[in-house]
Amino acid sequence: MRAACAALGGVIAGFASLAVAELAAAVVRPEAGPVAAVGGAVIDRTPPALKDFAVRNFGTNDKLVLELGILAILALFAVAVGLLTLRHRLVGSAAVLVFGAVGAVAAVGRPEGRVSDALPSVVGALAGAGVLYLLSGRLVAPRPAGERPTGGFDRRGFVVAAGVAAVASAGAGLLGRRLTSAVQAGAEASRRDLKLPAPASPAPAVPAGAELDVRGLSPFVTPNKDFYRVDTALVVPRVDAGAWRLRIHGKGVTRPVTLTFEDLVRRRAVERDITLTCVSNEVGGPYVGNARWLGVRLDGLLREAGVRPPSEGGRADQLVARSVDGMTIGTPVEDVMDGRDALLAFGMNGEPLPFEHGFPVRMVVPGLYGYVSACKWIKDIELTTFDAYDAYWVKRTWSRRAPIKTQARIDTPRPFASPKAGRVAVAGVAWAQHRGITRVEVRVDGGPWHPARLAAPAGRDIWRQWVWEWPATPGGHTLEVRATDGTGALQTARRVGTVPDGATGRHSVVVDVT
User: Fold this and answer.
1) Torsion of the alpha carbons at 163, 164, 165 and 170, rounded to the nearest 10
2) Nearest 10 degrees: CA dihedral of 115, 117, 120, 121?
């Protein structure tokens, strides 16, 4: 019984530590909380192969799984230190401070870390140590001076102390959440009250026939709620548009620029349909989506700052975008300034950017995987060279330059579906941003390739739907698809993983026709 209570005391102390830390983080900043800090440090040090495994198997729930894993480890640690107090009360209680030290080091050591970020972990650990010391004192029965321990303990005192500690911790946690919500209220209000400007350069009208009417096919425009999210932020930044600033500086910048959000939205707004793809997208994977973006051309801002691309004698060949969460993304200056619709976007599908997708401002550069182009929550742009600086993912063995590879995906029928024999619509999407798609072919069981019917082209930076009417016969079959891009290059059959610059291969599905 004493051991069980000691373990429970450790868990309550751990809960108290987290609750008080969350309250302190509400005062410092939410990203400084120990779970967010440790989780961010784990993500920073995760090998690319393991990161890909997490994204592939857990999808957009990868961060939730990480947080649950951290909490599980913390719970086991709490149980261990609780049991330790049975023999060494002071040592066991002090061991809670290890938790604080780990959180503090992780918080300060993050790319955007500040010395003050250590405070929540330290304060939380001190509170947890105090609670554990208090509870462990109730595990020894009161006895007159000089008498030996009897093996009993103060059950009633332990229950009362544990209850008070649990309630107080819950109160601290709730207050922390309330304060965090209050701090974030300004950011949420700035998004809610934002009225997007009308585009001076509207997106070209979507041509008739650009969206096929096929059940199970991805829509031409991906709704914001369904748009993929892959990033390293455990706590989604909530940035107040009124406080947002963007600085443009560095090599080759003759006129450094600092912009407010108001400055940005007053400029000539450009609206474009652009398909984005994550480098973590496996062949046939879900991390690709098409949206209508509203923003300001990035090349115009750079030229106003005096920047010239390398092809014009410019000194910088890399643009390093920095996010408020410390992420750095390196983009080739030549690609940003070659005339493509590279944007600093503040609108997505007719509404202000969702916080999850970078509000108030993010980068969108067609033709490049997101890890070298799509900085969310952007706050700083530095012009430099690839030789002088490696951005976040490049330091983790990914390539410096990553043009999107030609891919096609079968959306319907789904893998292991059981369509009925007869005419079956095999349909999906294909993409090769900034090159476009000119042909899609499908084959069955390794047989001859059949040309699919393509939807009307909407632009070379936009994915293209396709469909092939298959005269399906009963039995098991393998459907395979390939695409040809606007340069005439055929999608390769060579299957490679996502590291270091994107997956290749052909998507296939197995079905059982009845």
Assistant:
1) 90
2) -80
Taking the C-alpha atoms of residue 281 and residue 286, their distance in angstroms, rounded to an integer, is 7
Element (DSSP H or E) covering residue 180 = helix 155-192
Condensed to tens digits (0 to 9), the pLDDT of residues 402-429 reads 999 999 999 999 999 999 999 999 999 9
Sign of CA dihedral 311, 312, 314, 320: negative
Tokens coding 154: 């103060």
Q: Whose CA is closest to 285, among 445, 409, 443?
A: 409
Q: Which helix (H) or strand (E) holds 163?
A: helix 155-192
> What angle do helix axes 89-109 and 2-28 make, rounded to 10 degrees?
30
For the stretch 305-343, what's the b/e string if a residue is b when 16 or more beta carbons lie within 10 angstroms of its beta carbon? Answer: bebbbbeeebebbbbbbbbbbbbbbbbbbbbbbeebbbb
Return the amino acid letter for 211: E
The residue with tokens 């610059």 is: 501
User: In the numeric block, which tokens belong to residue 306?
Assistant: 């005096």
Q: Which residues make Cβ contacts (< 8 Å) with residue 408, sequence separation at least 6?
A: 428, 429, 430, 431, 437, 440, 466, 481, 482, 483, 491, 506, 507
The whole model's pTM is what?
0.86
Q: Answer whether 282's CB lies under 8 Å from 351's CB.
A: no
- pLDDT number for residue 42: 83
Half-sphere exposure (Cβ direction) of 62: Cα atoms closer than 13 Å: 22
The strand pairing partners of 380, in sequence order, are: 247, 322
Candidates 344, 357, 360; CA nearest to 225 is: 357
- 261 Cβ contact partners less than 8 Å away, ≥ 6 residues apart: 241, 242, 244, 346, 360, 361
* Gyration radius of the chain's alpha carbons: 28
Two structure tokens written together for 470: 């298959």
Q: In terms of Cα–Cα distance, which of 226, 230, 264, 228 is closest to 245?
A: 264
Distance CA 15, CA 252 (A): 52
Query: How far lies 493's CA from each of 13, 277, 483, 508, in Å?
Result: 56, 19, 11, 11
Q: Could you report the per-residue pLDDT of 67-97, keeping only the tens digit for each?
A: 888 889 889 999 999 999 998 999 989 999 9
Report d(CA 61, CA 52) in Å as an integer: 13
Residues 408 and 432: their CA atoms lie apart, in Å, by 9
